[in-house]
Design goal:
The complex is a heterodimer of chains A (861) and B (111).
Chain A: H1 2-10, H2 13-37, H3 42-53, H4 56-64, H5 68-88, H6 90-119, E1 130-139, E2 142-146, H7 150-159, E3 163-176, E4 183-190, H8 194-198, E5 204-205, E6 220-223, H9 225-232, E7 242-245, E8 248-255, E9 268-271, H10 277-280, E10 287-292, H11 298-315, H12 317-320, E11 323-329, H13 330-370, H14 372-380, H15 385-421, H16 435-459, H17 466-470, H18 479-511, E12 521-526, H19 536-552, E13 556-562, E14 573-575, E15 577-578, E16 589-595, H20 599-603, E17 607-610, E18 624-628, H21 629-635, E19 645-647, E20 651-658, E21 673-677, E22 686-691, H22 699-709, E23 715-720, H23 721-728, H24 730-774, H25 779-810, H26 824-850, H27 854-860
Parallel strand pairs in A: 4-9, 6-8, 16-21, 18-20
Antiparallel strand pairs in A: 1-2, 1-10, 1-11, 3-4, 3-10, 5-8, 6-9, 7-8, 12-22, 12-23, 13-22, 14-16, 15-19, 17-20, 18-21, 19-20
Chain B: H1 13-22, E1 27-28, H2 29-39, H3 48-60, E2 64-70, E3 76-82, H4 84-110
Antiparallel strand pairs in B: 1-3, 2-3
Helix pairs in contact in B: 1-4
The chains are: A alpha+beta (861), B alpha+beta (111).
Chain lengths: 861, 111
């Protein structure tokens, strides 16, 4: 095979070279000997033999022309040549390298983040066998899917045959009081079989025993690898030691392996009591998760659970009759929340890459066109087409390699920047630059650079004489260039439209009428625990007294306690019956919030009907509730809600109706809500205090006051409510910032494209412009002449970009808040921005042509 | 005045070399030139300048293989031999050549 031989030749250049020398020497000697035999003198014979052979050196080189060693040598020369050429045009070189760097760098960084945060497989064995279990109810033709009761999940687990195990869990942030200062940790309370479901045994110690899943059992906990390393110094003797939660000790029985992040970034796992009222209730709901037996399909599992549930329906007709189990792959549940983000980022970086490639192509085409003359001269001086092509190829490759290297640097920097931008982003700490993505992008962009760099080489065929070169009259319109420019402008309009909509949503979100006012409200907790008093009434009284003291402070306008903070995602929906309405077959699902009566004043939620509920002063708990307007309007039609009773644990009287508030997330519409009035739903509720002076939180005053009430206790987890809410929406903000960055980069690249294309046209027609100026044309006329075409292209591209946006922003619709995907204000703003910026980019080269000195221009050529 | 050209026509060198080598087991470059010259009664003269590049090219295309050996006079020389692929190439080139000469002859006779 010839290429094989060529390749092998590279490794034996010297031998080959001396081979040829010897062969030629032999030939000359034979010829001389022949001549000698014919009677020619020895010197003459040798001279004639050599003469007849020709120049031995040239001969040798021609014989070896096909040799790779020569080729490599030529390549190196070509690389040096290319570098010198590129260094002579630093502006062009920098632009191409930078564009490549943005294309490769930004894409790699974003893809790496997506890969780490969203795409990587759930870090558990056989993740495909993990499923989420929910229940589906049907009422008045409306089906709704919700979490289901712990006891039911337990029955499903015991009675089914297709599951390794089914368990339930609930998680919340609690205070770790092990150390000097209380710290916030995430605690999951999990049902039996939790470790079997996840499929990972503890790295150290054991899981929970049945006894630990019973009320009154020992208080034990499993801890995460991270907590073990960061807080307990990775001590292998940690088993049996205690961690303290709300001053109650929990014995550590095990440490879970690294990467055990289920259900979320949990630090502690504690056992759920299976015999507690809240787990025995068939109406309290928990997250259910199960592991299928090997080889069991979703359909088989569903059929199995249907069978089990039919049995339960006979046993518990009241609660279980209209229930159907649902099985969903866990991965779907995880991805569902992020799929939209994924596609958005994927789409936008792809568009950015496309713009970058287009730009590079346009830049290289321009450069190629500008050097037609140089190439023509070199061809006239004897360069073969192959040499010229090789030269151009080398130049593009040098550019591409430099760009890819810069892109790598940029990717590393951007990944670091992203981590800094969103420290709370889940799993961001696992981001590593994705090698395959980097290679893929480098190949794509390099291919674009090399191909567009080669175009002039294909065009040389058209240049038969030098004359064509010196008086290059390439068509001034350069349709290909303008197409590329148009594509860039259109794509940047699309990206900007997307970014604009997200920015507008974020803005709307920050201005949304949440139904409550978070500004000026500080949140904190005060240490306490179930075990602090034998009589819960004392705890109630302690919390009530604290509230009274707080409210008495002049710096504080109002204070309250709550179990769940308003405006943060998450909630506890439960079914609620209205006693007076009897069993009318309607399912009434409501969000339950346990708050002190001061909550409405503190959060500035107006009371619309009735009056404020009274505050229970002892441990008997809730006696009165408030409902929101959504609850009253949807569930109690045609009669006054006030005075009716809800059946929960005891009949609770509806004391009043309050305004709707976005309790379960400010991006979620208010849901029917029942506020159970009780200040001590737990010994460590959240405290909310509204500062009298709208800004600034009198936290030191609060501390001082509380020291007076109870010097043993400390205040911790202090944070303004709006900061907490803001933190929850950090990923949304990151998404918006990212897309905005892409969009702005895209716009800059597009402007560069417009500028480059028009500069080229101007450079071609500078002479013509000079001539016209000399003959009396106005400068404005020249500008108009150059700009008009560019503006037409930009305008058309804007229209096209808007059409494209319509498709692109549809992907956004799930992420928008309060803005339609076709928001006219955003879209027109984007078009105005693009038109303005692109026009400036077009104006600059035109003005340069128009204000050049005609005499100079004419002399210059 | 017609120019007398006895240099081997461009493009026929490969044919001549292949044909020469086809009739013998192996031959070095100098022998190839003298052979062609003698057989053609000095009508054709192989220009040495084109011979060696051609030999190398043909070797790379796999039509020839070469090896160093000793001549009758005990001198080291590089010997070339035709390969199977070279024989196929020879057949193809002979056919082309015959068609060409026949065509040219017809034109000269009847045109």
């Amino acid at each position: 095979m010839s290429w094989l031989r060529r390749l092998s030749n590279t490794f034996r250049t010297r031998r080959l070279s001396s081979d040829i020398d010897r062969e030629i020497a032999f030939h000359v000697a034979e010829r001389a000997a022949h001549l000698l035999r014919q009677g020619v003198s020895e010197d003459e014979a040798r001279r004639r033999a050599r003469l007849q052979f020709g120049n031995p050196l040239a001969q040798r080189e021609r014989a070896r022309d096909v040799d790779v060693a020569e080729w490599l040598d030529a390549l190196l020369r070509s690389v040096r040549h290319a570098c010198r050429g590129l260094a002579r045009t630093p502006g062009f070189t920098a632009t191409v390298v930078l564009t490549l760097a943005v294309g490769i760098g930004a894409n790699t960084a974003v893809f790496s983040v997506i890969d780490a945060v969203l795409l990587r497989e759930l870090p558990f064995p056989d993740p495909d066998r993990l499923v989420r279990l929910t229940q589906q109810t049907e009422a008045q033709g409306e089906t709704s899917e919700t979490n289901t009761a712990a006891v039911r999940l337990d029955e499903w687990s015991r009675l089914s045959s297709t599951f390794v195990a089914i368990t339930h869990f609930v998680w919340e942030d609690v205070s770790d009081t092990t150390g000097e200062t209380p710290q916030s940790v995430r605690r999951a309370t999990v049902g039996p079989g939790f470790l079997e479901v996840v499929g990972l045994p503890p790295a150290l110690g054991r899981g929970f025993t049945d006894a630990e899943h019973r009320l009154g059992g020992p208080d034990v906990a499993l801890i995460s690898d991270q907590y073990w390393r960061n807080r307990l110094g990775a001590d292998r003797q940690v088993l049996g030691r205690a961690i303290r939660m709300a001053n109650r000790p929990y014995t550590i029985v095990g440490v879970l392996p690294p990467g055990f992040t289920f259900p979320a970034d949990v630090d502690w796992w504690v056992p759920q009591y299976l015999d507690a009222p809240w787990t025995r209730s068939r109406q309290f709901r928990y997250e259910g998760v199960g592991r299928l037996e090997r080889g069991v399909s979703l359909e088989q599992a569903m059929a199995d659970l249907e069978r089990v549930q039919a049995q339960l329906a006979r046993q518990f007709p009241e609660t279980d009759r209209d229930l159907r189990p649902r099985v969903t792959p866990l991965k779907d549940v995880y991805v569902r929340d992020v799929r939209a983000s994924l596609w958005l980022l994927f789409g936008s970086v792809s568009l950015l890459l496309l713009i970058a490639c287009t730009n590079i192509a346009a830049l290289l085409l321009t450069r190629g066109a500008q050097r037609q003359q140089e190439l023509a001269i070199r061809q006239a001086l004897g360069s073969s087409r192959r040499t010229l092509a090789l030269h151009l190829l080398t130049e593009s490759t040098v550019l591409a390699v430099a760009g890819a290297a810069a892109g790598l640097v940029l990717a590393v920097a951007m990944a670091a920047g992203l981590k800094a931008l969103a420290p709370t982003f889940p799993r961001l700490d696992t981001v590593t630059l994705s090698g395959p993505v980097l290679i893929y992008l480098a190949v794509v962009t390099t291919a674009v650079a090399v191909l567009s760099g080669l175009v002039p080489a294909f065009r040389i065929t058209k240049l038969h004489t030098l004359r064509t070169g010196t008086h290059a009259r390439a068509t001034p319109r350069q349709p290909l260039h303008w197409w590329l420019v148009g594509v860039q402008v259109a794509l940047s309009v699309t990206l900007l439209a997307g970014a604009g909509l997200l920015v507008r949503s974020l803005d709307r979100l920050s201005r949304v009428d949440a139904g409550f006012d978070a500004a000026g409200v500080v949140t904190f907790r005060i240490t306490g625990s179930f075990g602090e008093e034998r009589d819960y009434t004392r705890i109630v009284q302690r919390i009530n007294r604290t509230l009274d003291e707080l409210a008495a402070l002049p710096q504080i306008e109002a204070a309250a306690t709550t179990l769940a903070l308003p405006g943060l995602p998450g909630g506890v929906a439960s079914e609620v019956d209205v006693l007076e309405l009897g069993d009318d077959g309607k399912a009434r699902s409501a969000e339950l919030r346990v708050v002190s009566p001061g909550y409405f004043d503190t959060m500035q939620i107006p009371i619309l009907e009735g009056e404020l509920c009274r505050r229970p002063e002892d441990a008997r708990g809730v006696t009165e509730v408030m409902v929101n307007r959504a609850f009253a309007g949807r569930y109690i039609r045609g009669r006054a809600a006030v005075g009716l009773h809800l059946a929960a644990t005891s009949p609770d009287r509806i004391a009043g109706v309050v305004g709707d508030a976005r309790e379960i997330g400010i991006d979620r519409d208010p849901v029917p809500t029942v506020y159970q009035c009780f200040s001590a739903g737990t010994p460590i509720p959240w405290f909310l205090a509204r500062s009298a002076a709208r800004r600034g939180v009198p936290i030191e005053d609060i501390r001082r006051t509380l020291r007076n009430v109870d010097p043993q206790r400390s205040v911790y987890d202090v944070m303004p409510l709006d900061e907490r809410i803001g933190g929850v929406y950090a990923p949304t903000r990151v998404r918006t910032i990212l897309l905005s960055l892409f969009a702005i980069t895209a716009l800059l690249l597009a402007c560069l494209g417009v500028y480059g294309a028009l500069s080229y046209v101007v450079s071609l027609r500078q002479r013509e412009a000079g001539l016209r100026l000399a003959l009396g044309a106005s400068r404005l006329g020249i500008i108009r002449q150059f700009c008009s075409h560019a503006l037409r292209v930009i305008g058309a591209a804007c229209v096209f970009g808007l059409l494209l946006s319509a498709a692109f922003t549809r992907a956004l619709s799930g992420m928008l808040f309060g803005v339609s995907p076709l928001d006219p204000l955003t879209l027109s703003g984007v078009v105005a921005l693009v038109l303005a910026v692109a026009s400036i980019a077009a104006l600059l080269p035109s003005a340069r042509a128009a204000f050049a000195e005609p005499a100079q221009v004419l002399r210059g050529e | 005045m017609p120019q007398r050209r006895n240099d081997v026509l461009q493009g026929t060198l490969a044919l001549l070399v292949l044909k020469t080598l086809a009739s013998t087991s192996r031959m070095h470059g100098y022998a190839i030139t003298t052979h062609i010259q003698q057989i053609s009664h000095d009508l054709l003269r192989v220009e040495e300048g084109s011979l060696y590049p051609a030999l190398h090219r043909m070797e790379q295309q796999g039509w020839l293989r070469s090896e160093w050996g000793l001549t009758d006079t005990n001198r080291e020389a590089r010997f070339y031999a035709i390969t199977a692929r070279g024989r196929r190439q020879l057949a193809a080139e002979e056919e082309t050549w015959e068609k060409l000469t026949e065509g040219v002859a017809r034109v000269l006779r009847y045109a």
